[in-house]
Amino acid sequence: MAITIKDAKAVCTATELELVKQSRDPATRSLTAAALRRKRDRSRRLRDKFRDLAKRQKREARGKARPQGRTAAAGADRTDLKAELFDEVLGRFEALLARAEAAASAASAKTGTARVAKKKKTGTSSEAKNGAGAAREAAGGGAPAARPAKSGGRTAAAATARAAVTLRGSGATIGTDPFAGSLAEQASRETRRRVKSTSAIAGSQESHFAGTAQSRLRGFVSGRTRAAQSKRDSRG
Predict the structure, then answer these.
(1) Where are the domains of the chain?
(2) N or C end of the chain: smaller count of CB under 10 Å?
């Protein structure tokens, strides 16, 4: 039969009675496992303490042990009651702790299962995407790899078109001979031709200016010579 709170009040201190009440309070069920462990350990220490004390008191009462106080203990009824009381308190806290640990374990297992399921789902989705990509590559015959070439072709075509526009703007004639090469090649040949022509014109102008200067110098020297000769003739 469980010891009542009334009987507990008759033998317990205020702090001991508070622990007894907590073991019976429904609100204690909401405590964490760590808090319940602390209360369980305290209940065990109190129970062991009063058990040992009751044994010693009984030995003193029978004259088997020397009294620790001034007089020998007359009995251990009060101490036995407290030892029995805290054994009950210990049992209640152990039951509450076992329930809390079971709930925490179930919640952890549920979380772990959900995490594993999510990971598997993510892995399956990734594998499916990779498989679909591989299937598209196999079906397309390497079509994704050909995209850079397509982009490069567009760039080359654009360059050729710009070269053709440049030639038309410069007044050059683009050949229609199918063996004459691409538009880009014709544009390159036309550019080289224009550079050579410009260089030839520049050289001709320099030669002209150089020849003109030399002719003027020779004429000037010849005139001075004729003048000097005329002066000498007049003196003679």
Answers:
(1) 5-138, 158-235
(2) N
